[in-house]
Amino acid sequence: MNLVQISDPDDPRIAVYRDIRERDLARREGVFIAEGKVVLDVLFSAGRFVPHSALILENRLQGMAPVLAKAPAGMPVFVARQEVIDRVAGFHLHRGVLAAAARGEGSDATTLLARLPASALVLVLVGISNHDNVGAIFRNAAAFGADAVLLDATCCDPLYRKAIRVSVGAALKVPFTIGGDAAGLFGLLSAAGFRQYALSPSGATDIRHLRRPRRAALYLGAEGEGLPASLMAMMRTVRIAIAPGFDSLNVAAASAVALHRLARLD
């Protein structure tokens, strides 16, 4: 490992880690921050994003050695005491395990869809702005073998540090694009041969009775608002049956149930 001891919080070599919360929100410098041992393991193993460096609490270094061994050769691993890392981050960072990686150019939705196999399952997120929900949905997408996630422009960033952490690194594995509006994504998916379904508590069909086509796209909307009526009118609507007298599931929980029903895991 290319270990570099850091004793000065103002050291320019670790500037990318300074004031992490503000960097998360502004998406500055085309870089995102990954946090935690499991997440760094996925980052280094999946190969979808190029890591620039790591910043590790000195008493975590030994335990992190097997994970850091998977990082690109020569990548700097900055090592610092807790008080230095806290001053750099701007808050107490108890995990003490960070990495910075390039966002890259990414694929547009058309290119991503063209790369999918003949049998594919895609999630489409519309207006989901809660990072916990987005992270959990990506975790479910990875668990049940979804091939891609498309997010419209009103969704939050899957590469926000908290979303990555909640996803347990799945946001670094499952291919995704973000941008455009739901109607545009509907047109692209139609052209690519996908049968499209809107998940809603008022859906016309119980998802247990749905026969999965070779290419399926499942739409999920935000808490409370759900999917726009105009969008649901464009496709078949499905629901998850729940006990009488209760409103609905959290969107992340609903995604797990629906993906389990649509997954082909054999």
What does it look like?
This protein has 266 residues and is α/β, with parallel strands linked by helices. The protein folds into two domains: 2-102, 60s Ribosomal Protein L30, Chain: A (2-Layer Sandwich); 109-262, SPOUT methyltransferase, trefoil knot domain (Alpha/beta knot). It is 32% helix and 23% strand. It is built from ten helices and twelve strands. The chain has helices at residues 20-26, 37-46, 61-68, 82-89, 109-114, 131-143, 161-166, 182-191, 229-232, 251-262; strands at residues 2-5, 31-35, 50-57, 76-80, 97-102, 120-126, 148-151, 176-178, 195-199, 205-206, 215-221, 236-239. A seven-stranded parallel β-sheet has the order 8-7-6-11-9-12-10, sandwiched between helices. A five-stranded mixed β-sheet has the order 1-4-3-5-2, with helices on both faces. Helix 6 packs parallel to helix 10. It is elongated. The model has no long low-confidence stretch (mean pLDDT 93).
Number of helices: 10
- Low-pLDDT runs of 5+ residues are none
Q: Give, in spatial order, the strands making up the sheet with the most strands.
A: 8-7-6-11-9-12-10
Instruction: Give the tally of structural domains.
Output: 2
Query: Which homologous superfamily in CATH is the superfamily of the largest domain?
Result: SPOUT methyltransferase, trefoil knot domain
CATH topology of the largest domain: Alpha/beta knot
CATH architecture of the largest domain: 3-Layer(aba) Sandwich
The oligomeric state is single chain
| Structure classification | alpha/beta
Shape: elongated
Straight-line distance between termini: 40 Å
Instruction: Specify the CATH class of the largest domain.
Output: Alpha Beta
Question: Can you give the mean pLDDT?
Answer: 93
